[in-house]
Amino acid sequence: MNLQTNLKHISTEADYNKIVSDNENIMICCGRMGPMCVPVYAEMEDLQNEYSNVKFYDMLFDLPEAGVIRNMPECAGFMGLPFTVYIKNGKVVKATSSIQSREQITEILDSVF
Amino acid sequence: MKDKKFDIIIIGGGPAGLTAGLYIARAKVKVLVLNEGISGGQMVLTHEIANYPGINTISGFMLSRNMQKQAESFGCIVKSNIKITSFNLEGKVKTITVNEKEVFEAKAVIIATGGKSRKLNIEGENEFTGKGISYCATCDGDFFQDKEIIVVGGGNSALEEAVALTQYAKKVTIVHQFDHFQGFKHAIETAKNHKKIDFILEAEIVGFYGSKSLEEVKIKDLNTSKEFTKKIDGVFIFIGYVPQTIPFKNIIKLSKRGEIIADKNMATNISGVFVAGDCREKNIRQITTAVSDGTISALKAIEYIQSK
Ligand SMILES: Cc1cc2nc3c(=O)[nH]c(=O)nc-3n(C[C@H](O)[C@H](O)[C@H](O)COP(=O)(O)OP(=O)(O)OC[C@H]3O[C@@H](n4cnc5c(N)ncnc54)[C@H](O)[C@@H]3O)c2cc1C
What is the mean pLDDT of chain B? Predict the structure, then answer.
């Protein structure tokens, strides 16, 4: 099962590992189809055209294999959906919890990638 | 976008703006909706809408998509994710500059910029948002299974969400500034009679503290001004909304609370500038009242441009 968005989805830990090893700059939003998550997916869908150097993905929070994001040390203490992680050369360089505005997202994209 | 001249421009693409767009486009009048962020406004933040007539229940996101598609099907152009960087609403021709480069023109403008959740704006609030502080019970409630939480506020949202959160939390404390509530009688009674809910009244939170996530809050007793700390796992904040009218504050007449003042035709103090939805001075803020305002402002704006 995947999220109903126009983003590319990550469904398994194996998918995740492959994507991380194949790409330099990645933004992954892990959430549900809820009010705090949907605006973030919509911003990501739009930002894909502006940031061709970044790969944008989502992952359904409730998938058992989404533990690969849920249990990241960078997400420890997170108690708000979605969990969003930014990965550069295989390393998590930034992680946020809860809804983020376009300005907050672009500020991170501009600073970490 | 090549086309820069419109008959009517709508600022804001929530239910008020999208309804105005639908009516104007359907009347074959050229209309553009300019929206910061994704369209749908506060509807997108709503998990389930069960009080929009004719639809049993629908997610706010789906209702937003449907409203936008319907407006677009009649020729309304919706431009989302933009930032209005300057405007001139006073002349006969109104101009609006987007992203500091694109200048759009119109004969009339409808302001439908809505509102957003009020924050406490105190120490630690930004730092712990998503790490113990939340503004959405349906989104984040399940992170607080068997935990102890606080709900801040004393209106219907705070009371109803406090009750909803008892399905997860072992204890919910409502912290409210006054000794009485502003909610409906049944909402107050339900919260007061709930065995998992207790109250700290005439008090306010003045700070959030913790390391990786929220661990405690500082609360001020408003009668004695004494402050005390309380260990807590989570805080949900429901303290009303603020109208998004700051850009218009020196141009358009606003109420003390910052809402745009309009007559029954949704006309503001500036000729050719109308208002619709939650950013207008009014009592009831719902999707149904926003679409009503959107309808009236659209028809009156059309009448205005056709009379010129
Ligand atoms: C959590 C929650 C649950 C709710 N549940 C319900 C419910 O069940 N039923 C119900 O009827 N109502 C509900 N409401 C209230 C309802 O959503 C609002 O009354 C309604 O959305 C108001 O519509 P609006 O178009 O006036 O404003 P908004 O929905 O606030 O839309 C305004 C739009 O304008 C945009 N904007 C703001 N400033 C600018 C600018 N400067 N330039 C361009 N664009 C701008 C915003 O980004 C936004 O998209 C709920 C509200 C919330 C927050």
Answer: 95
Domain check: are B225 and B145 in the same one?
A: yes
pLDDT (tens digit, 9 = 90+) per residue, B77-114?
999 888 999 999 999 999 999 988 999 999 999 999 99
Instruction: Using the 3D structure, point to which of B237, B264, B285 is the last residue of a domain.
Output: B237
Convert the pLDDT of each residue in B241-261 to its tens digit. Answer: 899 999 999 999 999 999 999
HSE, CB side, 13 Å, CA atoms: give it for residue B16: 27
CA B31 to chain CA centroid, nearest Å: 24
Q: Which contacts (CB < 8 Å, 24+ apart) does range B213-219 have?
A: B213/A77, B213/A78, B213/A79, B213/B128, B213/B131, B213/B132, B214/B124, B214/B128, B214/B131, B214/B132, B214/B133, B215/B132, B217/B150, B219/B175
ipTM greater than 0.90: no
What's the total number of domains in chain B?
A: 2
For the domain that residue A52 is a member of, what is the CATH number? 3.40.30.10
Q: What is the CA radius of gyration of chain B?
A: 22
How many beta-carbon pairs under 8 angstroms link A with B?
73
Torsion angle defined by CA atoms of residues A26, A27, A32 and A33, in that order, rounded to the nearest 10 degrees: -110
Would you state the torsion angle of the CA atoms of residues B203, B209, B215, B218, taken in this order, to the nearest 10 degrees?
A: -20
Q: Per-residue pLDDT for B233 more than 90? A: yes
- At residue B6, the pLDDT reads 98
The residue in chain A having the minimum alpha-carbon distance to the alpha carbon of residue B129 is: A98
Query: Are B38 and A43 inside 8 Å of each other by CB?
Result: yes
Residue B124 backbone dihedrals phi, psi, to 5 degrees: 90, -10
Q: Which residues of A touch B133 (CB under 8 A)?
A: 80
**Residue from the list B37, B61, B129 with its beta carbon closest to the beta carbon of A80:** B129
Q: SS3 of B212, please?
A: coil
* B65 alpha carbon – ligand 1 mean position (Å): 14
Q: Domain range holding B15? A: 8-116+241-307
CA A42 to chain B, closest CA, distance in angstroms equals: 7
Task: Report how far residue B206's alpha carbon sits from residue B214's, in angstroms, rounded to the nearest whole number.
Answer: 14
pTM: 0.85
B169: its two tokens: 């939390």
Q: What is the pLDDT of residues A15-61, one digit of tens each?
A: 999 999 999 999 999 999 888 898 899 899 989 999 999 999 999 99
The encoded tokens of residue B142 equal: 């399940």
Phi, psi torsion values for B232, nearest 5 degrees:
-155, 150
Give A96's contacts in chain B (Cβ within 8 Å): 130
